[in-house]
């Protein structure tokens, strides 16, 4: 069990980061003009405002929560905010931000996969 814990939380994040960076670098070098966002915002805005706002508010909440939660020393808040209260606030605010991000992400993914303005025929996707 100790090996799995060490692998998944100590080693695997570095493997995933290296694969991401090296893969992005190789894709940029060898397929530079195949990168495209394929944005369809101009063609179909239905559902875009709600999904995009939910996703971005959730991501910002997660970022701010991690920033303050990990970079704020205990001595700065322990006089007026007990640790248990801070942990409960982090759980509720983080949970709400995560749910907002998840709902917005699912709505954006649904729009991307099933909207006629977003979906391209298969031969155009391959090229």
Automatic annotation (TrEMBL):
Cofactor section: heme
Domain NarG-like: 5-116
Keyword tRNA-binding: no
GO molecular function: electron transfer activity; heme binding; metal ion binding; nitrate reductase (quinone) activity
Key word Cell membrane present: yes
Membrane topology, record value: Multi-pass membrane protein
Protein residues bound to heme b 1: 56
Pfam families: Nitrate_red_gam
Primary location group: membrane
Subcellular location: Cell membrane
Main enzyme class: oxidoreductase
A single GO BP: nitrate assimilation
Superkingdom to which the source organism belongs: Bacteria
Listed EC numbers: 1.7.5.1
Oligomer and partners: Dimer of heterotrimers each composed of an alpha, a beta and a gamma chain. Alpha and beta are catalytic chains; gamma chains are involved in binding the enzyme complex to the cytoplasmic membrane.
Name of this protein: nitrate reductase (quinone)
Lineage of producing organism: Bacteria, Pseudomonadati, Pseudomonadota, Gammaproteobacteria, Enterobacterales
């Amino acid at each position: 069990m100790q090996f799995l814990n060490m692998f998944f939380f100590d080693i695997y994040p570095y493997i995933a980061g290296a694969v991401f960076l090296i893969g992005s670098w190789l894709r940029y070098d060898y397929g530079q003009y195949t990168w495209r966002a394929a944005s369809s915002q101009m063609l179909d805005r239905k559902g875009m405002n709600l999904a995009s706002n939910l996703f971005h508010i959730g991501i910002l909440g997660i970022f701010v929560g991690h920033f303050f939660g990990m970079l704020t020393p205990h001595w700065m808040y322990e006089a007026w905010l007990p640790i248990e209260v801070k942990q409960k606030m982090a759980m509720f605010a983080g949970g709400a931000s995560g749910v907002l991000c998840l709902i917005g992400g699912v709505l954006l993914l649904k729009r991307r996969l099933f909207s006629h303005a977003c979906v391209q025929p298969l031969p155009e996707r391959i090229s």
